[in-house]
Design brief:
This protein is mainly α. The chain folds into two domains: about 5-40; about 50-115, lambda repressor-like DNA-binding domains (434 Repressor (Amino-terminal Domain), Orthogonal Bundle), CATH 1.10.260. It contains seven helices and two strands, in the order ββααααααα. The protein has helices at about 20-40, 50-60, 60-70, 75-80, 85-90, 100-110, 115, and strands at about 5-10, 15-20. A two-stranded antiparallel sheet has the order 1-2. Strand 1 (about 5-10) and strand 2 form a beta hairpin. About 15% of the residues are buried.
Length: about 120
């Protein structure tokens, strides 16, 4: 990381650090990795085999992969989340998004942290 971080104090007394975007991205990735490792070590997220990892990467969405991993049909997960199966299908295929409350219901039904089932590429 560079040494070009600038420190500022707002009129309200809040201290800020301004750093190059590259440094920010490196720090963000390190935090995400640490969180993922902690989730795995704590058992919050199951470890995946190489084949399962390839399936996750190749899946239409993380939600679709984890639903299948938990051996749930779309109808079962939709029922647990209180929505219609076709709405879940649209969400899994990126045609609709759903609100945060819905994603929290998906996470609870799948017994996973919400960040695992959300596609952060969108």
């Amino acid at each position: 990381m560079s040494k070009s971080t600038t420190y500022l104090v707002t009129p309200g007394g809040e201290e800020l650090a301004v750093l190059p975007r590259r440094d920010y991205e490196v720090m963000k990735e390190a935090v995400e990795h640490a969180v993922a490792l902690g989730d795995y070590r704590s058992g919050r997220v199951p470890g995946l085999t190489a084949d399962e990892t390839r399936a996750l990467v190749g899946a239409v969405s993380p939600l679709a992969f984890w639903r299948g991993y938990r051996s749930m049909t779309q109808s079962e997960l939709a029922g647990k989340a209180g929505i219609a199966q076709n709405y879940l299908s649209d969400i899994e295929n990126g045609k609709r998004t759903g609100d945060v409350g819905l994603w929290m219901r998906f996470a609870r039904a799948l017994d996973l942290p919400i960040e695992v089932i959300v596609d952060d590429e969108d």
